Amino acid sequence: MADLIIENLTIKYGEVTAVENLSINVPSGEFLTLLGPSGCGKSTTLFAVAGLNHATSGTIRVGDRILFNGDPKATVPPERRNIGLVFQSYALWPHKTVADNLAFPLILRKMGKSEREERIREALGLVEMLPYAERFPFELSGGQQQRVALARALVYRPPLLLLDEPLSNLDAKLRERARVWLRELQERLKVTTVYVTHDQSEALAVSDRIAVMSMGRMRQLGAPREIYETPADSFVADFIGSSNFLDGRMIESGVDHALVELGDGTRLTTAPGRAAADGSLVVAVRPERISVATAEGPNTLRAKVEQKVYLGSVWQYVVRSGPVEFRIQTTFEIDAPEVLLHIPAEACALFAETPVGN
Amino acid sequence: MTDLTDAGAKRPAFDRSRLIFWGVSLLTVVLVGGPILPIILQAFLDKPLYDAAAGFTLGNFGRLFSEPGVGRIFLNTLYFGALTMVIAQLFGAVMAVLVGRTNLPGRRWMGEVFIWPLFVSNLVIAFGWFTMYGPSGFLTLASRTYLGGAPWNLYSVTGMGIVAGLSQAPLTYLMCLAAVTKADPQLEDAARSAGAGPFRALWSVTIPMIRPAMIYSAVLNFVIGIEMLAIPLLFGGPSGIQTVTTFLYDKGINAAVRPEYGIVGAAAILLLIVVALLVWLQGRLMRGAGRFVTVRGKASRPSTLDLGPWKWAAFAFVFGFVFLTILSIFGGIFLRSVVTFLTPLIPIWKVLTTGNFELVLNSETYVRSIVNSVVVSVVGAAIGTFFIAVIALIARRSEFGFRRPLEYVALFPRALPGIIAGLGFFYAVIWMPGLDAIRGTIFVLILAFVVRYIPVGFGAIAPALAQIGEELDRGARISGADWWTTVTRIILPILKPALFSCYALLFIHFFKEYVTAAFLYQPGSEIIGTTMLQLVAQGDNGPVSALATIQVIITALFVFLARRLLGAKIYG
């Protein structure tokens, strides 16, 4: 298997910049997810790696093989990149049986019949679709088509596998099972994998590392836990999971902590961070990290319960303290009109700006 | 798994896809430009094109405008085209709404009959009208005998325009029918729940949505009107009425006797410019038609409207129309082919004969024209389908840098009237060295027909191509296939139904063609259309009707087989 190196990749369509100066190094055997809202450039990046759209500048390498380096003459066309790609719509050729779909890439590689059949059996076995070899795609369910698409991308043993939202057309239950299965298969084959999705829980569940993208730029690259717990900026904090954004003012900025005053006068000790030039900032804190306190103390505040929603596994409340409104989650019901809350210092991330769109 | 890092598909010795892009583009430019260039040159030359001593002049246009009666000719053409359009739009649209959206009795079979005229040439239609409604036509005489008079006169520009309009109504009908039946029924349902009655919902919601179809077919019918040869030739000829096409036809044919190259070139250019402008205008008008597009995922038919007691009135209207303008026309042709003399005054059985068919089948020339027609259609449609499919694939599914220009060039023949295409190829074959070998053969006919009908075939293939998700090509490319392998192994097999439809459409158009061939055929390469044109001019109505009948029968057989065996979609 091989590693994928993307350096300073920029993709422009006329005046529009779809991907700007993106650099990612995916080591051999890693499962990397490109995560972001639609239009963030994640699929554009993926298809540029596949050679199916034209990058403007930068370098794309697999191992020591240069696929793209900005010179159109040296750009390797998609058919010679030897990359496996699974499409969102699966793109199974409707006029070919499952076996013929898998045979096509092997025939193009001038592989003999017996070896071909061996490979097809092996690949269909991997995705547990062997009994369906002679079916046509329209005779398969969505989940089965998705497996065949994966088998087709793996049958010629590419060193790099690209997946473009392959689970988004499955229903919720099946999607959860498929992602576990997909991850297991990837670990078994140790194929370097780049996965594109806009579903954060999917990304958190399957990835070794996640690259969060927004408007053509990479905002943060890290392990799922790192992304979730220490978001690099307010966009990541907002996009991954759900966060309250509380406007505040920097009172004191230390090496290992900071002191912040919220709009209602409450002072919070928080993890260290930076404020804007005028001292204003936002405190990002996840609803499930805020707990109900039994006694007043540091980082507590009293809030009125304004709205209550039952979500099954948890209760969600909208609470207010003066001008500060935010959401909290509890596993038990709160009956009182007012509640004392504790916001742990390590649960607070400070950012200079509110996320775009908030 | 073993590592195969270096093993994509093998790099071919040369990039054949690129070769195909350039080769096909070059061929398209030559084929489309081929007939136009010599006409433009000829219009500005003072001697025949092939004369080395020819020099530049503007005098041809002066000579054209000083030609006696030329203003009349242009006015006739415009009036004729406009009337054709108005009549066709009026009847076509009304028919489409009645057949497509109401509970009109017999709408299924009448709707089917209504598109028959599209399968035959307007030469056949014109002959049918002449047989039934001409000065001594069957229905004219019947009306005169039993009703004391026949209030129509085909031998006038108005009469010609009405005939042409009625025979073009099916085209409007077809386009409007698609618009009214494919409209999203939810839109009308929404109007109903907002308080509109069924008529009101149809009138206010669905009828406005046929506007793009109306605009599109209106310009198309106007263009067809001004480039139509058969009707002005048959009905205008005897009374001395000329249009631009008959002028070009007469002058062009007579060019052998009295060299009038310059005038012909000048008139041809003017016609070409007018038609090109109209086609451009059509494109302009169709811009923003997207707001009328309602075809979305779910395939459900809109409900039919109950006409109540009016349905019999509507039936009488539609049946009268179908009977008088289609059934009687085809009937007249068939009837004329089995009698020596067609008149309501003598009982049919007294004049029955097989003589017309015997005459045709015993004549080497006539049989040859039938065989040639079949060969040109069978072979030509196959060549055309392949060529057009490759053009469409390059234009819509390749990374070729000039794919947009290629599509423009390929679709330009929409603006190329048949008579000009014929004239242009005629010049080109004389003018370009080496082409003399195919002069007067059926090859040049196939070539001219293919070029003329690229847009027709393209129209059959492009929408189907758009239905095939691009990720299917991308999947093939990433699997290791180059462009040409992707096209031949993945896209064309999936495109098969559309290719059959394209083949069927081209076959029908080639089989009924006569205008484009008028200047191009020579003894040995005549086709049914040109032979009929010649016979009509001589007034040999017996063999004309026999040939027309044979043409209709072969066409009907072909349409039946193509629909049954190939599942080809031909007009709906």
Question: TL;DR of this structure?
Answer:
The complex is a heterodimer of chains A (358) and B (572). Chain A contains 8 helices and 20 strands.
Describe this structure in words.
The complex is a heterodimer of chains A (358) and B (572). Chain A is α+β, with helices and mostly antiparallel strands and 358 residues long. Chain A folds into two domains: 4-235, P-loop containing nucleotide triphosphate hydrolases (Rossmann fold, 3-Layer(aba) Sandwich); 242-351, no CATH class. Helices cover 23% and strands 34% of the residues of chain A. Chain A is built from eight helices and 20 strands. In chain A, the strands form four sheets. Chain A has a six-stranded mixed beta sheet with strand order 6-7-8-3-9-10, with helices on both faces. Chain A has a five-stranded antiparallel beta sheet with strand order 13-12-11-14-20. Chain A is elongated, with a radius of gyration of 24 Å. The model of chain A has no long low-confidence stretch (mean pLDDT 89). Chain B is mostly helical and 572 residues long. Chain B has two domains: 15-38 and 354-572, MetI-like (MetI-like fold), CATH 1.10.3720.10; 72-295 and 313-353, MetI-like fold (Orthogonal Bundle). Helix content of chain B is 70%, strand content 0%. The N and C termini of chain B lie far apart (52 Å). Chain A: InterPro entries: AAA+_ATPase (IPR003593), ABC_SmlMolc_Importer (IPR050093), ABC_transporter-like_ATP-bd (IPR003439), ABC_transporter-like_CS (IPR017871), Mo/tungstate-bd_C_term_dom (IPR008995), P-loop_NTPase (IPR027417), Transp-assoc_OB_typ2 (IPR013611). Chain A: It comes from Cereibacter changlensis JA139. Chain A: It holds the Pfam family ABC_tran. Chain A: One of its GO terms (molecular function) is transmembrane transporter activity. Chain A: Residues 4-240 form the ABC transporter domain.
